[in-house]
Amino acid sequence: MAASKLDSIILEYGKAHKKEYKAIYRAIERYDKIVVFRHLKPDYDAQGTQMGVYTFLKDNFPEKEIHYVGDNHVTFTPRLFPETENLSNDWFTSNKFLAIICDVGDPERIADPRFKHAKYKVKIDHHPCKKEIARASVCDTELAAAAELAADIFLNWKGKTMSVEAAYWFYIGIVGDSGRFLFSSTSPHTFSVAQALLATGLKLSPLYQKMYEKDIDSLRSLAYVLSHFQVSPHGVAYYCLPKDVQEELHITPEQGKEHVNTFSNIRGINAWCSITEDPNPKDYCWRISIRSKGKDISGIANKYEGGGHAQASGAKIKDLTVLPRFIADLDALFAE
Ligand code: AMP
Q1: What pLDDT, on a 0 to 100 scale, did the predictor assign at position 3?
Q2: What's the predicted TM-score (pTM) here?
């Protein structure tokens, strides 16, 4: 899409971030080899942004060598996103490459630690950042999605084209992290970027079909969640999915977490969590996905080895003896 046709909100946003955007454009122009990274245990936004950036670069710089790496997702791959690439250690140590790191600021959470070998690093993110990891960086915690920011960066790049395919990936990221434009992080800017992406000719119905298609096991696990959830005195709804239950239901921890938003529109429920046993031998824990209607729950997530956004955060606990304390902390937030 030509910049002249861009919505004024996107143009204004681009103007306000002109310096950071220029540094990113120059870095991309300077390097022939680029690897796009994102966070571990990816969600729609992490993968949508990564694939959007990858596709945009492939479309506009066909002569460059572009790659995308990281862990695959149990249900998204290959249904929604393609398998990531297997690049050898040798590739990372013998090439001068640019790393574009999307939707993550914490180096421990970057899905492939070999980003460290990059000659130059660019970061595009919307998470609070404790320590800057990149030379050129743009991070806006007010934005609903990293994809919203990445799409804005590229829509503002004069002379470049946003293809329907690149728009498709960015749109998935925005829909995913804004909770289908429901979360309070959704702003006029979110809609302006979505509008510009739609203007490429993107068709929504097949996109939503792919994003939200479920199977019968998922329906059965939802039935389990609905008959086993608990609610704390001040409206924290939560459910636990131990390993043996996951096995019985034929689901993974990631699939178990997908029911968390079942509680989003229930009167009297202020926050809701899924607590899933992750039997990964390297990092055995119970993963908690926390969502909230209003209050900022990221402080509680930080206290329990996690972090994230005001209304969508993640945390982890080593065993279920810690769970009552975690729920009590969250509950106290809503007693105020
Ligand atoms: P999840 O519940 O895993 O979908 O995560 C919700 C949000 O919190 C996402 O934006 C994640 O990037 C973020 N998040 C999840 N786990 C962590 C963590 N351990 N540390 C920091 N942020 C996290």
Answers
A1: 44
A2: 0.87
